[in-house]
Design goal:
By secondary structure, this protein is mainly alpha-helical. About 65% of the residues lie in helices and about 5% in strands. It has five helices and two strands. The protein has a two-stranded parallel sheet. It is elongated.
Length: about 130
Amino acid sequence: AVVSTQSTGDVIPINLCCGVWSLLAAGIFSEQHLIARAFSIDPDTAPCGIFFHCNGLGPRLLASHIVFTISIIALVLAGTGLITLPLWRFNALKDDSETLFEEEEEDSGRITEERKKQIKERNKAEKE
């Protein structure tokens, strides 16, 4: 079985940027009473975002969110490495960009006989 890598290019930047922003925004803009309600703690001792000067705990809250963000990124990279390195080692990862281009060429009728011959030879060599 071959794992396809086609059209995954936008997944990482979109999810990474949005995820990092959501964690950091929570550390910047959190209101004290909302944190107190969410974690069932005393509203006077609850931290708040760095823009709200409630009890001086804003920088600590933001710092904890930064550490959490870095740890999640490290965990994802480690998990991705554990999954993809064995697949890469045993040649189970395949880049479908060339195959997709070939299919578009065939569908549009722009493919030449020489190009068809090149594709067949390459596919034959890959199977061997």
